[in-house]
Structure formats: C-alpha cells, structure tokens
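TASK: fixed-backbone design
INPUT:
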C-alpha cells in the first residue's frame, strides 16, 4: 500500500517540471471544470474547499465567480502548491484564497483545516490520481457542512467513444499515474445524500454532485 509520504513524493516527481506548463496543456482535455464552477451556486457567506487543488487554477476562478466566498485548497504535492501560491499572489487573491499542504484521505481533524466545514467541496480531476480515492471521497463528505454539496468532475468510461480512443487515452493517462474511476457513481451513492450524475462529451468525463441533508 502506498503511504502518504510516498504518494506525496510521487506527485512531486510527476509535477516538478510539469507544473510550469500544466494549465496551458490541460485545458484541452480536463473538460467540465468550468461547468462545475459555474454550477456551484455558493450561498451568501458560504465557503468552498478544493481537495487536491493543484496549481490553484480552479481556486482562482471560483474566487472570481463568487467574490463573497472564502476559498480554501490543499494538495499533497509541495511542487504544485509552489505554483498555486505564485498564481494566487499574481491574481491578487491571497487575502481570499487559503492554501495548505494536506492529504486528501486524512480525516478532517487531522487535515489542514480541522475546525472548518465547507458549503461546497470540489474534486476536479483529482480522484483519478488518488490511490485510496474512495477514502478521499469519504473524507470530502466529512468536510462538507450539513446542507452542503460535494461536486466531482473526472475522467469517465468513454463508453460513447471509439474503442481505440479509450485504449489510447487510458494508456496515455497511466504514464502520469492517472486511472479513470469507472465506478464513480456507486462510490458517490455510498456517501448518502441526493446524487445528480451526468456523462459529459460522450462519457469522456463524468460530473457528479451530492447534496447532503441539513
């Protein structure tokens, strides 16, 4: 089993150089991220957490879309956090976006924001890189305030696309330690709450939102 330290070191190795071109290259195939952000509908005074926030790209867009919302993010990769901190500072949002190092699978009381629960919790193309991704979802749910929402967008099963495309994509993603979670629906249902799940772009991606009761 991969330990937290091992996974953090692996992610640092993967992104030590890629972080510099990550946002430029990923915009062409990390589809559905902006739709997720537009749908967040953060309530007045609400807070947002992105789990495994990477370069901070989504955090900046969330902060701009919902200017009254405090925004938080954490990542296990210090390399990615270096890029995120610089991007947030350039955007002039350091007073609204709080960044920290943390493991997605850690219980909230052992994570970077132990005293907070959030109105919106976001996973954007991160579950496919987390070994214990079901555990990360469970902890994301534990981070979500009553009546809040947990939103996920990630690679789908490509069921509506040609077989050669799926095989090529899965093989290419594996080079970056990325594995599409084809049983995402079952895992989201296990969290409880009301699930809305959609396949996007002929199942290239899947977008799910779990709304928890008050």
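OUTPUT:
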């Amino acid at each position: 089993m991969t330990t937290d330290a091992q996974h953090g070191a692996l992610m640092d190795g993967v992104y030590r150089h890629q972080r510099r071109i990550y946002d430029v290259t990923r915009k062409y195939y990390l589809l559905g991220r902006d739709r997720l952000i537009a749908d967040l509908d953060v309530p007045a005074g609400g807070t947002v957490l992105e789990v495994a926030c990477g370069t901070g790209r989504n955090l900046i867009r969330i902060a701009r879309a919902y200017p009254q919302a405090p925004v938080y993010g954490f990542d296990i990769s210090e390399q990615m956090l270096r890029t995120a901190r610089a991007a947030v500072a350039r955007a002039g949002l350091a007073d609204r976006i709080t960044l920290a190092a943390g493991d997605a699978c850690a219980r909230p009381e052992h994570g970077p924001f132990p005293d907070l629960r959030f109105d919106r919790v976001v996973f954007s193309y991160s579950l496919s890189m987390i070994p214990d991704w079901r555990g990360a979802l469970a902890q994301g749910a534990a981070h979500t305030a009553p009546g809040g929402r947990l939103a996920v967008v990630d690679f789908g099963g490509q069921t509506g696309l040609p077989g050669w495309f799926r095989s090529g994509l899965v093989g290419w993603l594996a080079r970056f330690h990325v594995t599409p979670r084809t049983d995402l629906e079952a895992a989201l249902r296990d969290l409880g709450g009301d699930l809305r799940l959609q396949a996007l772009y002929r199942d290239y991606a899947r977008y799910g939102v779990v709304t928890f009761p008050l």
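COMMENT: The helical segments are 4-18, 22-26, 33-38, 57-65, 78-90, 133-143, 163-174, 184-189.
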